[in-house]
Amino acid sequence: MRKTCFGFRRLTQEATLLVLSLLVALTGCNKEEKPIEIITLEGKIEKIKRSTDTTGEISVVFYSEKQRQDITGAATVTEETEILLDGAAAKLKDLREGERIRGQVRVEKKGEKKSNVVLKIQVERARPDAGG
Predict the structure, then answer these.
(1) Distances (CA, A) of 54 to 60, 82, 89
(2) What is the pLDDT of residue 72?
(3) Residue 70, SS3?
(4) pTM beyond 0.85, yes or no
(5) Is 94 helix (H, G, I), strand (E, B) or coil?
(6) Which is nearest to 84 in space by CA: 107, 50, 118, 51?
(7) What average pLDDT does the segment 78-93 reach?
(8) Closest Cα to residue 107, out of 42, 33, 36, 57?
(9) Which of 56, 98, 112, 119 pairs as cysteine with 104 (C-beta 3.0–4.6 A)?
(10) End-to-end Cα distance, the chain
(11) 36-123: CATH number
């Protein structure tokens, strides 16, 4: 009876060590690296490369607090990207280069590779005065 209990305890300890080792291997030891990060930014559309009316790539010039200068960043626009033009639903084809935008980008890091996917784009176009 004691032999079975000892064998079970040893098996439990080995399984626990295996699980802990897998967790360390999968999550890594570097706590500073964030595999997925959501960034909110404001800037100006520099370039739009459309694949379809709703998908493509967008380049935006924005001010980076970290680098203390304007930089250009590119990101993929997908079918799931929410695009709002003056508060109404819109498509990538409705946006124009040179427009000021606000948005959210998901930055995903996998080793040395980094992918940027646009989650949300908001554009408020200047409206002519109604009073004229």
Answers:
(1) 17, 10, 12
(2) 94
(3) strand
(4) no
(5) helix
(6) 118
(7) 95
(8) 36
(9) 119
(10) 95
(11) 2.40.50.320
